[in-house]
Structure to design on (1116 residues):
């Protein structure tokens, strides 16, 4: 028995250590790539570029899709922020996905919506559209009232109604910075359409002063849980998105703010309605399509376009969110498991998929194992101390040091929270990460994995929670 | 393989933490400096805004207060100048800004161009073009010979196109860098008419992207001079060029004869038929109705839709469509005509 | 003089006084110039009473046949003067009218007995009362040496009152906002004093309540503004019951046909694409204000 336990401890210890080293090395590599890419832009005057592209002559028109399910509080501000975008040609399409609250009435009253007859082409089959409205104030603002069918279905309706070659999906409780659309469209415009989808950077709005769709001041919120999420977002942004984007390896662009070429999205079948992570699903489908058609197209992540969104403030909501995300991630990866290590899909199959499987999807399991290992080791006595301490130190590097590095780097380049006090608070809080936030989220994510394995039939229920919950994928 | 030991990891952690600590201090110091910089800039902005107004708009005499001392004040002047240039067109103001920049800002940007930071060099290049600092043209040409990025080269081309169109055309010809269409458009739209026409003259020698950009720019410039050029391109062998030329003609909106366009009504490509349906917007209905009716029964949804729209926009359009409804038996066309009529009435 | 028969079918001096006061006030309120003309028989000393009576009848009938329905003809109590209030007409139009009827009177044989002279008063303010108006005009026409068909002018009431107009500038860029403010503050518009205020976003403008007063109100704003953008402000202002008092200029960076059309359909008076010429803006504003008064 003792021998067996010994063997287990050594084996798992070795395995977890090895795994942690791999993860740390890959994060380091991505961090360095991101740093090199971002450093260049330090102190660049962005207004020069922005202004050059405000003329309709240079830019391509975009349809902005706002799916709204029970968003009576947030949707008006979202639409205001869209109305104030500095972009020459847009149309705003609000899709009321059979809300049970007064979302429909609120929008109708606020923007003076009048019913209109409109010819809609059905590119993607969807649930029934009940009525289309048009604003009396803003001629480019449309409201579509449809039967409930989930966020993906609402977006598909939006795609059908839209008249422009690009569409941008925005969650009904997010706020866009006035230049964000211009910046997220920049790679698309500059590449003459080689970039067919682009995702923007998401920021957490808690603590920022907002009114009528404008963010006036940004302060760090007081809620520690929210600050931890801010740090997490910064990490995900620096150790992941930028590096992956550089080599066209992006599998997730946040559904809260992303632009797609309509032609490609429609050909890829639009958003899938039978899956939790519809945004990831669409990106993966487009990647497949690119390979199938053997075209030279890219999907990019753009570091600066800013979409402000509310983050969960309580453990309960955050737990739901993380469980769902992880279940969604697992589901999507599983659905496309044949792409893993499949040379037919190039780097996506050889690098992206293994990375998402090992680091993003199964990582929490191993890491949680690591935490348990440390605890068990301390009970078992001193022969395991060394391994446990090494593991702990790796967690420190992985958790604390990477987080602080991300905070500092973000502060240096983007300077979201200008007050020095805020910066120091974030750094101090980062030291505590490995003791509470990290284990908690790991646990929730493992719950998500379990959810995928056990509760397949339960998805329907999950889905109906819909977009009402404050959820954004990082 | 390196043995993973506790001391090693401790050292790594320690070193990293020290590095991060130093970085934090650096950032905080940097913040302080930025705040001071912003203060100086804002004070200068406050104090000189009225002087600038008087100098630029009211033609009052130049005051020494306006001459910048230090970077922060240059930053303030940049804000002022770009606010004026972005919002106001006035040759005198532009001239004064140019004059002032050539005299007092030149040395700052000259120094910036030799900066090690890419972003600072880029900012300087932007300003040279915006404020028309011609005095730095030679410096720019020397700068071109150093190792520069594609973005910088693009800015240089923009600068050449403003100060020395000859050189610009030369550079475009020899340029090894392949810019995107929208970038070429950004360059071409700034060109004077005579230079642009020259670009058009050797149309066939350019790469596709330049050709496309030239057609689109011609359309946007809405200059009658370019109509003939575009009309010639309508018969070009490349469909893409044909379509773009048609689109350009539609956008200029001056159609003096319909004969050149009639053959396209039966074109194999629906995009071309669509463009023709659009072009007919600019021609009285009695010349075009026969063709539009044909397009209304097109197999392509977009063409049908556009034909219906073109008809209904005209004064006697609704009546014509109704007449069509009574006589036609093409279901798709009927549906389109009905919907368009309903929509037109709804919008009234 | 006493046995002159007063023509029955036109209005008399005492009846008109009340009307005049209403008309005078509406001149100010609707900013529409009114012009009064008084006629006097130039050869009043000649002929018998009966002949004069006949001439008087003829004059009344003739004038009555020439005026528009909006003009008010009346005879003065002394029997020798006629007055017409031309509503919504300036001096220029009235001069043309006089030229026309005098030409008829001199050419046609049936009117050979009529000889008239006239005086014109253009009225743009309400500092005039009926009696003084009559007195001044009678005085102008009192000189017997004046040639027949001469036209005199009373110029005392032609200056419109100086009115206060509000100007609101809503622009996000601080420097340009200041430029606009200085420019408009220095703008000299006849008969108006401009009360200029600036706002950096739509919400603060709506909070200010300054748009709720009855003054003529020029709003110069951007289409894109933080917190309530230009199009919404446009809609709110145009929904107001007295929306006509707003002159709305919208500035925009968007140079697209659809954006321009939207703005005009929403009710802007001018859509100006940035960058624009400041002098041109000044001229446009002046012209808009000038059109306010007939």
């Amino acid at each position: 028995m003792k021998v067996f336990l010994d063997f287990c401890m050594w084996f798992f210890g070795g395995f977890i250590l090895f795994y942690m080293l791999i993860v740390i090395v890959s994060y380091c590599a991505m961090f360095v790539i991101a740093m090199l890419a971002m450093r260049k832009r330090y102190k660049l005057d962005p207004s020069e570029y922005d202004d050059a592209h405000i003329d309709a002559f240079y830019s391509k028109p975009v349809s902005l899709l706002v799916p709204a399910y029970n968003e009576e509080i947030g949707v008006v501000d979202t639409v205001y922020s869209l109305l104030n975008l500095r972009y020459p040609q847009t149309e705003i399409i609000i899709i009321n996905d059979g809300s049970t609250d007064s979302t429909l009435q609120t929008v109708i009253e606020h923007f003076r919506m009048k019913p209109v007859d409109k010819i809609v082409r059905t590119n993607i089959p969807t649930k029934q559209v009940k009525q289309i409205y048009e604003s009396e104030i803003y001629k480019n603002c449309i409201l579509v009232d449809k039967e409930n069918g989930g966020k993906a279905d609402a977006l598909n309706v939006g795609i059908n109604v839209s008249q422009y070659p690009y569409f941008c999906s925005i969650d009904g409780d997010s706020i866009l910075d006035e230049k964000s659309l211009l910046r997220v469209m920049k790679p698309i415009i500059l590449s003459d359409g080689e970039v067919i989808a682009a995702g923007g950077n998401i920021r957490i709005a808690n603590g920022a002063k907002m009114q009528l769709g404008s963010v006036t001041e940004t302060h760090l919120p007081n809620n520690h849980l929210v600050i931890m999420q801010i740090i997490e977002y910064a990490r995900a942004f620096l150790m992941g998105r930028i590096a992956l984007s550089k080599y066209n390896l992006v599998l997730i662009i946040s559904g809260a703010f992303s632009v797609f070429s309509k032609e490609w999205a429609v050909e890829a079948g639009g958003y899938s309605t039978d899956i939790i992570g519809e945004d990831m699903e669409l990106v993966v489908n487009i990647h497949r399509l690119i390979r199938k058609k053997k075209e030279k197209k890219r999907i990019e992540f753009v570091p600066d376009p800013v979409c402000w969104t509310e983050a969960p403030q309580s453990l309960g909501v955050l737990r739901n969110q993380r469980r769902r995300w992880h279940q969604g991630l697992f589901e999507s990866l599983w659905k496309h498991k044949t792409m893993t290590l499949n040379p037919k899909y190039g780097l996506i199959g050889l690098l992206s998929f293994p990375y998402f499987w090992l680091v993003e999807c199964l990582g929490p399991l191993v890491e949680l194992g690591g935490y348990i290992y440390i605890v068990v080791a301390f009970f078992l006595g001193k022969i395991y101390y060394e391994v446990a301490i090494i593991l702990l130190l790796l967690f420190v590097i992985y958790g604390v040091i990477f987080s602080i590095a991300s905070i500092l780097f973000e502060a240096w380049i983007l300077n979201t929270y200008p007050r020095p006090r805020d910066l120091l608070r974030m750094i101090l809080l980062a030291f505590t990460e490995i003791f509470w936030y990290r284990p908690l989220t790991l646990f929730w994510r493992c719950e998500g994995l379990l959810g995928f394995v056990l509760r397949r039939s339960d998805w329907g229920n999950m889905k109906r929670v819909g977009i009402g919950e404050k959820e954004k994928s990082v | 393989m390196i043995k993973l030991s506790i001391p090693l990891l401790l050292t790594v952690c320690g070193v990293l933490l020290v590095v991060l600590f130093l970085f934090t201090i650096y950032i905080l110091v940097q913040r302080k400096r930025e705040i001071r910089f912003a203060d100086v800039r804002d004070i200068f902005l406050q104090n000189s805004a009225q002087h600038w107004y008087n100098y630029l708009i009211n033609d009052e005499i130049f005051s020494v207060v306006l001459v910048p001392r230090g970077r922060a004040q240059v930053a303030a002047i940049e804000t002022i100048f770009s606010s004026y240039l972005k919002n106001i067109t006035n040759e005198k103001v532009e001239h004064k800004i140019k004059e002032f920049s050539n005299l007092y800002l030149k040395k700052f940007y000259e120094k910036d161009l030799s900066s090690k930071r890419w972003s600072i060099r880029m900012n300087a290049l932007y300003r040279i073009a915006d404020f028309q600092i011609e005095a730095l043209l030679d410096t720019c040409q020397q700068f071109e010979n150093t190792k520069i990025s594609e973005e910088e080269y693009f800015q240089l081309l923009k600068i050449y196109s403003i100060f020395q169109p000859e050189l610009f055309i030369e550079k475009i010809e020899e340029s090894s860098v392949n810019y995107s269409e929208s970038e070429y458009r950004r360059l071409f739209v700034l060109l004077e008419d005579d230079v642009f026409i020259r670009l058009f003259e050797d149309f066939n020698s350019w790469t596709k992207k330049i050709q496309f950009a030239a057609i689109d720019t011609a359309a946007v410039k809405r200059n009658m001079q370019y109509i003939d050029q575009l009309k010639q391109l309508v018969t070009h062998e490349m469909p893409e060029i044909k379509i773009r030329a048609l689109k350009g003609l539609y956008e200029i909106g001056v159609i003096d004869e319909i004969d050149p366009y009639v053959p396209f009504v039966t074109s194999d490509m629906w995009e071309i038929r669509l463009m023709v349906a659009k072009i007919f917007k600019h021609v009285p209905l009695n010349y075009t109705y026969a063709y539009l009716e044909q397009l209304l029964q097109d197999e392509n949804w977009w063409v049908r839709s556009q034909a219906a729209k073109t008809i209904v926009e005209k004064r006697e359009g609704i009546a014509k469509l109704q007449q069509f409804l009574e006589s036609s038996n093409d279901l798709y066309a009927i549906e389109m005509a009905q919907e368009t009529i309903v929509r037109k009435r709804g919008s009234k | 003089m006493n046995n002159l028969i007063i023509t029955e079918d036109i209005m008399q001096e005492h009846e008109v006084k009340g009307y005049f006061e209403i008309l005078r006030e509406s001149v100010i309120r609707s900013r529409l110039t009114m012009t009064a003309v008084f006629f006097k028989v130039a050869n009043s000393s000649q002929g018998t009473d009966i002949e004069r009576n006949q001439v008087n009848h003829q004059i009344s009938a003739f004038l009555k046949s020439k005026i528009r329905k909006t003009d008010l003809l009346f005879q003065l109590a002394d029997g020798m003067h006629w007055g017409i209030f031309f509503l919504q007409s300036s001096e220029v139009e009235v001069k043309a009218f006089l030229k026309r009827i005098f030409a008829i009177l001199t050419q046609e044989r049936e009117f050979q007995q009529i000889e008239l002279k006239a005086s014109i008063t253009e009225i743009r303010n309400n500092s005039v009362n009926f009696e003084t108006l009559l007195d001044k005009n009678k005085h102008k026409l009192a000189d017997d040496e004046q040639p027949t068909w001469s036209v005199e002018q009373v110029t005392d009431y032609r200056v419109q009152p100086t009115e206060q107009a509000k100007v609101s500038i809503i622009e996000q860029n601080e420097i340009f906002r200041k430029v606009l403010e200085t420019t408009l503050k220095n703008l000299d518009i006849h008969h108006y004093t401009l009360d200029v205020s600036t706002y950096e976003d739509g919400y603060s403008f709506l909070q200010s309540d300054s748009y709720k007063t009855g003054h003529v109100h020029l709003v110069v704003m951007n289409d894109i503004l933080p917190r309530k953008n230009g199009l919404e402000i446009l809609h709110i202002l145009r929904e107001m019951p007295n929306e006509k008092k707003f002159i709305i200029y919208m500035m925009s960076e968007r140079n697209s046909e659809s954006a321009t059309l939207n703005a005009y359909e929403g009710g802007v008076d001018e859509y100006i694409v940035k960058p624009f010429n400041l002098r041109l803006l000044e001229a446009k504003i002046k012209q808009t204000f000038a059109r306010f008064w007939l």
